[in-house]
Amino acid sequence: MQMPRTLSELRSSEFTEQRVRTRSVKDEMRENLIAKLSRGENLFPGILGYDDSVIPQLANAILARHNFILLGLRGQAKSRILRALAGLLDDLMPVIEGCEINDNPYAPICKGCRLVIEERGDRTPVAFVPRENRYVEKLATPDVTIADLIGDLDPIKAARGGHLLSDELTIHYGLLPRANRGIFAINELPDLASKVQVGLFNIMQEGDVQIKGYPIRMPLDVALVFSANPEDYTARGKIITPLKDRIGSEISTHYPATVEEGIEITRQEAWLSRDGIPTAVPEFIMRVVEQIAFEARKDQRVDRRSGVSQRLPISVIENVVSNAERRRLINGGESIAPRISDIYAALPSITGKLELEYEGEQRGASTVARELIRTAVGKTFETYFGHVDSSDIVAWFNDGGALRVSDTDNADLCLKSFRHVTGLLDVAAESGLADRSQPEAVVAVCELILEGLHAQKKISRSEERGYVAARSEPRAYGYDALNRSRKVN
Length: 489
Fold this sequence. Notes:
two-stranded antiparallel ribbon, alpha/beta, Rossmann fold, 23 helices, elongated
């Protein structure tokens, strides 16, 4: 279908004057939301874990035509939700061609567009803006000014057009006017200076603003949405009371409620496929990685006010896969198969994302991260091996056995060492977590068992000596010990 190109053609199209003139952007979002709900569609594709909490509150706020704020700790998909709001806008919106503020062809508010319609009438050219261009986002920082958001007088425009500086035609529009008839989002709202917040709510509520002392009326049509971290309310700034009063709904976001929800989010977001090479990440590896974040969020040594972002497990699993990929490149192989040892190799993805309290700082980020991994492995081990008899494995270590394998050893070499441990391969086989015909998977399960027993303090482990009994001096088994014995012989 050919789209209208002039105001006259627009009047006789589906974009009738009655519909376009009287329908605000909030009405538009409301109508499209109602249609999606009636059809049973997913309102926010890709947003997981909020179906019974955040999304119903969002729907209520949009149905009520509210400006709203998303309040939550870092890494809770606040920005993603705000950007997904563009999906509630129409596919195309008619505007006066060349207008900087997406002016309504039937009811222009800027002086330039009014002059064009006076001059050309029904021949006024129109254009169409897609929904993705109707979402404008700004990260609030203390240096943001009124000019950035509202606009400023442009002396060059005044000189070229021969206008007075007080003329509307000399305005260089800021982000808010450019979001006219769309959605304007401000992230980290408390970081915005108080005087800028005043200008923001004034133009939105009363439709007037002063630019360099000149009062200007701008009855903008904008859906205003915000995000903020609860810590910022008191730590770095605050939302001024008049602006807070004009925010219709305050919606709290949250971290995944269950490990399963977290795993689903991490699988969706993490980059796990590497150049077409098969990557088999066992479910228990995903569970351990996700459990690390859950443990960190309740650990007394980690600052709970800052939170532990969902980016932590996403970054960790990507590093886990990378370490497994590095092992494949060193040893050769057809697939990338992560193990528990790869999680320890991903420590840099954990330490940089933890804000520590005094006790945690005294212990050190690396030590805290290792202890979080050990706790997470212990809980995952309980999930899969809680009722399994592992006494033979523990007895082997208590009799003086020791086992040391490297995260770069290939699967065959690791299995050769694991066969010395009484009952280890049998327990791995009985678990059903791996097929004996898949050496890489068997090695991963064996490492889960060993690390789980270490977490339960039934055996000990150190970087220098590997896995040993919780007490006594061991006799060594493993790759290094086997090599030494070959040299002796």
